[in-house]
Write a structure and sequence with these properties.
The complex is a heterodimer.
Chain A: H1 16-39, H2 48-67, H3 77-98, H4 101-104, H5 116-144, H6 154-181, H7 183-199, H8 211-217, H9 221-234, H10 244-267
Helix pairs in contact in A: 1-5, 2-3, 2-5, 3-5, 3-6, 3-9, 5-6, 6-7, 6-9, 6-10, 9-10
Chain B: E1 2-13, E2 16-28, E3 33-38, H1 44-52, E4 59-64, H2 84-95, H3 103-110, H4 125-138, E5 143-147, H5 155-167, E6 173-178, H6 181-187, E7 190-195, E8 198-202, H7 205-214
Parallel strand pairs in B: 3-6, 3-7, 5-6
Antiparallel strand pairs in B: 1-2, 1-4, 7-8
Helix pairs in contact in B: 3-4
Classes of the chains: A mainly alpha, B alpha/beta.
Chain lengths: 272, 225
């Protein structure tokens, strides 16, 4: 029966449960499509999802080791670089792939089950999965070869990481939806991401800054996430500064703004 | 039952808002076939986009009491670096259908041979159109949206499409948009004319056609004066 296909989503109101089933199905389809489209089946195929951020992180770790850039801490540079740069990738890559996501998938909206939120959900999940796997694999390898101590408090690392993921997803929604309104957003994102990097807490410990600098830097929500990840990793050997409540509140508000923008964007989308 | 209720669509242009559809009403019962005649630029494709749900009306509402297809043979949603088979699988995943039982039909209809497992970017126009049409037939809907202009091909292809659509799926509802009255005469019970953003309904196809023929070509959009 065609009515079982879930194609008549607005034919009467389907139950919440049914809607969720359809949505999960659509997101899965989009995920697979995105994977094959972006990474193909040649050479490493979808392993690139993990290898690419790993290469980035390794490169940065090598660079920082070469110039001795672990300002303000007595931490081994490799551990400092891996925790720091992975934390940047998780929000930066997510947003970068959300920018223009609606425009790039306009034609899919002819399939009534596909909503703009699904397009974002698929891309966000993919980026978070890639960055998380890269962080986990690199940590495991370097802990394995004793180049890095194993995490002092794994739960804290996870909590900090999850917050960073949430922040990345929220920022991706907001910036991605905003890019549907005006292409200036697309153009501006690259420089903004570049400028945010030195402020994101990846390349310094908050504790090493003068008091005034700390206050400014802690306005940036991702700093709290990185500090928490490092607190979890290094424990008492470092002094960290973060406020879970601040980062969660910021991410929550950003999520709401993102969803709202997306709703409006979805209504005024113009297919071709 | 599909119910189009006072639907308008306004696009923002550099010269201000432009009303493409102006308070349109339409009803379609299950299994009924309605043709919509309109000249180039009359808003036929806009209407199809609204009916398919790809875009939202500026005002008014569309109630769909049955499942409505995406515009028939619309190939724009293809990911061209994926193969024909990948695209079939994608569509099937979206609609929650197993693709395997559909393979014989799709392979037979598209006549793609080994190209079925090649990226769509390597296809000729004709191959893309055949694949698009076959995928449209792969998912069953209560109502098909057909933009005649999208189904381009030679006579044999047309004939095969018509068999699939108008014979095998004759029990479904159709909304057929075209500027060719003969197609409507063949397959539709009633017809409407889209003109100047308004939709005019007629009981017979002949009455609709007479009206369509009597309308002067629409003046260019007033904003360009």
């Amino acid at each position: 029966m065609s009515t079982d296909l879930g194609v008549s989503r607005q034919a009467g109101a389907p139950s919440l449960g049914r809607s969720l089933v359809i949505q999960a199905r659509v997101i899965r389809a989009l995920l697979l499509r995105e994977l094959i489209t972006r990474f193909g089946r040649r050479n490493l195929g979808l392993l690139w999802l993990v290898v690419e951020p790993m290469l980035f992180t390794l490169g940065v770790a090598a660079l920082w080791t070469a110039v001795g850039a672990s300002q303000g801490s007595n931490l081994p540079i490799v551990a400092f670089a891996i925790t720091g740069y992975s934390s940047v990738l998780v929000w930066r890559n997510t947003v970068t792939h959300c920018v223009n996501a609606i425009h790039q998938n306009l034609n899919l909206l002819y399939h009534r089950n596909v909503r703009v939120l699904d397009v974002f959900a698929a891309r966000i999940l993919l980026e978070i999965a890639g960055a998380t796997a890269s962080f986990a694999v690199l940590s495991a390898i370097f802990v394995g070869v004793d180049a890095m101590a194993s995490p002092d408090d794994l739960l804290k690392v996870l909590a900090g990481w999850l917050l960073l993921c949430w922040f990345g997803a929220a920022l991706g929604l907001a910036v991605g939806a905003a890019s549907a309104f005006n292409e200036i957003v697309t153009r501006i994102w690259a420089p903004v991401a570049y400028l945010l990097f030195p402020l994101s807490g990846a390349a310094f410990m908050v504790d090493a800054l003068p008091r005034a600098g700390q206050q400014v830097v802690l306005l940036f929500p991702m700093v709290h996430g990185v500090e928490m990840v490092r607190d979890g990793f290094f424990g008492d050997s470092v002094r960290t500064h973060y406020d879970l409540g601040y980062m969660a509140t910021f991410s929550l508000l950003l999520t709401l703004v993102g969803l709202l923008l997306l709703r409006v964007a979805g209504r005024r989308v113009e297919a071709q | 039952m599909i119910h189009v209720d006072n639907v308008s669509k306004v696009y923002r242009t550099r010269f201000g808002p432009r009303t493409v559809l102006d308070r349109i009403n339409l009803r379609l019962e299950p299994g009924r076939h309605v043709g919509i005649l309109g000249r180039n630029g009359a808003g036929k494709s806009t209407l199809i986009r609204l009916l398919s749900g790809a875009e939202m009306p500026t005002s008014g509402r569309i109630h769909r009491g049955m499942s409505v297809s995406w515009p028939l043979a619309f190939g724009g949603a293809f990911q061209t670096n994926l193969t024909g088979l990948d695209n079939l699988k994608f569509i099937c995943r979206i609609y929650g259908v197993d693709h395997r039982p559909l393979l014989p039909f799709v392979e037979e209809f598209t006549e793609l041979g080994t190209y079925f497992k090649e990226p769509v970017s390597h296809y000729s126009m004709g191959m893309v159109t055949r694949l698009a049409f076959a995928l449209s037939m792969a998912i069953e809907f209560d109502c098909f949206l057909i933009d005649e202009a999208m189904v381009v091909g030679d006579k044999r292809f047309h004939d095969r499409c018509h068999v699939e659509l108008f014979q095998k799926r004759r029990d479904r509802a159709f909304i057929l948009v075209t500027h060719d009255a003969d197609v409507i005469r063949l397959y539709c019970q009633r017809a409407c004319v889209l003109h100047g953003g308004r939709l005019f309904e007629f009981d017979t196809v002949d009455a609709a056609y007479a009206f369509y023929e009597s309308q002067p070509a629409p003046a260019p959009a007033p904003v360009s004066a």
